[in-house]
Amino acid sequence: MAAAGFFNRFMALRTATFVLCFVSMLAELQRIDHSVNSDSLRFLVVGDWGRKGEYNQSKVALQMGRIGEEVEPDFIISTGDNFYENGLTGVDDPAFEESFSNIYTAKSLQKPWFNVLGNHDYRGDVEAQLNPILRMIDHRWLCMRSFIINAEIAEIFFVDTTPFVDKYFTHPGSHTYDWSGILPSREKYLSNLLKDLDLALKESKSKWKIVVGHHTLRSAGHHGDTKELVKELLPILKANEVDLYINGHDHLVQHISSLDSELQYFTSGGGSKAWRGDYDLNKEGLKFFYDGQGFMTVEMTTTDAELIFYDVFGNVLYKWSTSKQAYKAI
Ligand SMILES: *[C@@H]1O[C@H](CO)[C@@H](O)[C@H](O)[C@H]1NC(C)=O
């Protein structure tokens, strides 16, 4: 039994490695091809989740599995804060299985999981979450600091947002952050990342450009806007006509529209513990806000996109759709 188990894990790792063939590599950004053999791309988005099933993480997971059966997602995106309170202690931390493998067990969720790091993940051993060894425990897992998934219909740019936020460096309080790989040259790390992102966005041939990060750009929730990202990241997204910015960090689901561009902001941070009653409903551009648990589905073709928020019971909270013309009328 043990040998068979190891063999399966080994084969899973080989398969995962095969799928992840890196086609290009910028200083901070790897581009990974993930072709979708269909004329639509479908994925689920969940954030701020790893609590060993508690705070309704298991209930949200159950509904993701149920809705996933209808949606048949190509993959799942995690917007970070994968393991509370302090990330993983190492690659052998049982929290990896207790909060991930043993929770998202539904058949429909046995797809690649593309994960970014949140600020809580930076309080643990960051390298552990990035270590491909984790794919021997659960072949679905893929976490890198910043990377690109080229799914043809859409290109998805995952950005490591935690190192942008000054207060984690200047006022860490009682928390310790693992800045290996970031310090001592934080400025260089951030400027390389932004330069690579700008270049990769300019090169992108996809109809839809989606950027995913943990921190908010715009939020009516407790954390509000992340000023460092508004200053440094947002101009690049606008200049390159990014369609969607998807994040977590605030434990809720919300949609905010831009007033001066096509960019739409979606927060999916309701994977477990929710904060209720801490928000600003006068937020400019706010279209939808729900301060409870939930997750999001995204379905897109080359011309149309539909995003749906679900709550902890699997009820639809909100639907938003948009379309792009296939051909410009002459
Ligand atoms: C979990 O969800 C139930 C609804 O199923 C809700 O009544 C309860 O407050 C939630 N618990 C937590 C800890 O959020």
Automatic annotation (TrEMBL):
It catalyses: a phosphate monoester + H2O = an alcohol + phosphate. Keywords: Glycoprotein, Hydrolase, Iron, Metal-binding, Secreted, Signal, Zinc. Fe cation 1 binds at D48, D81, Y84, H251. It comes from the Eukaryota. It is found in: Secreted. PANTHER family: PURPLE ACID PHOSPHATASE 3, TARTRATE-RESISTANT ACID PHOSPHATASE TYPE 5. This is Purple acid phosphatase.
